[in-house]
Automatic annotation (TrEMBL), chains A, B:
Source organism phylogeny: Bacteria, Pseudomonadati, Pseudomonadota, Alphaproteobacteria, Hyphomicrobiales
InterPro entries documented for this protein: HTH_LacI, Lambda_DNA-bd_dom_sf, Peripla_BP/Lac1_sug-bd_dom, Peripla_BP_I
Organism listed in the record: Rhizobium leguminosarum
Protein name stated in the entry: LacI family transcriptional regulator
SUPFAM superfamilies, alphabetized: lambda repressor-like DNA-binding domains, Periplasmic binding protein-like I
Domain of life: Bacteria
Keyword entries, A-Z: DNA-binding, Repressor, Transcription, Transcription regulation
Coiled coil residues, start to end: none
A Gene Ontology molecular function term of the record: transcription cis-regulatory region binding
Amino acid sequence: MVSIVSVAKVAGVSNKTVSRVINGEPYVTEETRERVERAIRDLGYVPNMAARQIRSSRSNTFGIIADYVSTTPYSVDIVRGIQDWANANGKTILMANTGGASEQEIKIWKMFQSHGIDGVLYVTMYHRIIDPETGDVGIPTVMINCRPKTSELLPSIEPDDYQGARDLTRYLLERGHRKIGYIRLNPILLGAELRLDAFRKTTGDFGLAASDLSIRLGMEGPVGAEKNYVFAAATEMLQQRDRPTAIMSGNDEMAIQIYIAAMALGLRIPEDVSIVGFDDFRTVSLALRPELTTAALPYYDLGLQGAELLNSVVAGSDVCPSSRVMSCNLVERLSVCSL
Amino acid sequence: MVSIVSVAKVAGVSNKTVSRVINGEPYVTEETRERVERAIRDLGYVPNMAARQIRSSRSNTFGIIADYVSTTPYSVDIVRGIQDWANANGKTILMANTGGASEQEIKIWKMFQSHGIDGVLYVTMYHRIIDPETGDVGIPTVMINCRPKTSELLPSIEPDDYQGARDLTRYLLERGHRKIGYIRLNPILLGAELRLDAFRKTTGDFGLAASDLSIRLGMEGPVGAEKNYVFAAATEMLQQRDRPTAIMSGNDEMAIQIYIAAMALGLRIPEDVSIVGFDDFRTVSLALRPELTTAALPYYDLGLQGAELLNSVVAGSDVCPSSRVMSCNLVERLSVCSL
DNA sequence: GAAAAATATGTCGACGTTGTCATGCGTCTG
DNA sequence: CAGACGCATGACAACGTCGACATATTTTTC
């Protein structure tokens, strides 16, 4: 193992001087600095993080604890955002998934503690309210895509589902749609309620009556084993005499079934029925024909901002532990037409 | 910080005895062991990995270096497999993404070295042949979902695209299909060639002529910015007088467009045209109606086995650095009918 | 019942790094 | 020119853990 000591020997200086060079401390002659740097290059020296950590009790490592995020296709962009931030700021990321099991969660907190993690990003796959088993370990924590249930608040960052659904609804209304169908997300998800509320409120404000709305449940049951009514619901909705001219889908994935249901009934998209999604899950939204108009969940930014926020918490700046919210931008594609 | 020393003080023994208890070494009375364990619990002691590593020069940590895997929806199951193995075997996972940039890659290898990583899993999003910039760091490495180009071989684990496509083709042939269309994956991907070869070979063996086959390119161009011809290709294919009774899609995602193309032409699936995918990317294969018959990429097992294999390499057992291959199981759903 | 073996516990140092303090040298101030 | 100051460097200890070795106690063996 090539250590600071071997570098010092080769450069003909003390180890402390090498340490100074490595850490960019002042009070080193240009000449010694160069000698040391050459020795570092020649020997291929790399600092030993474990030793640093033991000395400084700072690991420069953040932990991600997730339910399924990194192992599920949907919210990977959160992780990407975090990693990009970490990369740009010289931090390392240690990742663990609970798979939803709370005994796992406790084990993971212990593991984080063991590794002297500086801070934890608590990430969930679906936007929801939870009660993190922080294991009372006292590591600074920021929640991403979820919000703590209990009063002992942790700072959190969430997508603005309400605003996203409101913008989407307005978009349809502005294009002349007055009969609108809505196929609901699984009600366990926080987004489901927020999106539906926004839909109801916005159509109401615009003067639509309850009879102009056609609302159906698309999915229900435990995440990962839900019952799927989307195709049936869409088919039924589109067979009504007075069928909606536009359908809002709880998310993009569900929109696949709505497309297929519409086409099976011989309806053209968007001429006969307009469809909008939610999430901008691009594997779907860009694969559908016509491409899907939808509201983009700000996953990447959630990750980036979350890491940034955690960093300031760790650095000790007094972040008030409130919930920060990021907007969902409307992505206009070709699945909606004006009437 | 509660260390071994504080535990020793409380338990009234030497630190070495505490160390012995922690590591389950023999030669400790039942009585002392209990006293120590109680002290550990009372103080909430957790071993300090950094210190351990510095002492033993083993970190019990594996690194994942990926192009985009963990930040892309497709192959997250590889990561899940690795993490499950790590969890079950008390290893920790450090994860980094190159985003495809090779200067990133070098940086990441340095970082791994800095952290004293025991072994590295080199994972790619798409099955392909690459030349890893291992940074000549000499950390044991196993490649997952890819194969090294150069002669200095590293052990690798890959999916058996050929077998998967062969089984899928046979499945169609056995059900009486004699006119079969094929929409090709992006040819940069190793899977594209293997799958197409299998399709050609298997139909040929079965006695189909080239004229019975209708092969079109679905996508091309750099990953992430490819040109997409799928919808057009499928539409054109299905408008032929002598249209195929079944279409094999390069992957599940492309099948979305094939479904829509077929339906737009008023064709029913599977009565008028059968469709099979590849990958079993469940967000798609289970969302399509009828659900998609496909071959499942063994991603989870790739991860699990890869971690296992890396572990034996690290432990020093002489693993011959050859390529191991895992089969793609056919998943029968409802998108194919017998003629 | 003495020597040998097995069991139980302790002391000490080293891993690689950096913070604290000390030292040496040159330059400035009055 | 004495003292103060700024700069450049080094000596040393300490972080938490565990391996090597030493010591103390008990058990086995003939």
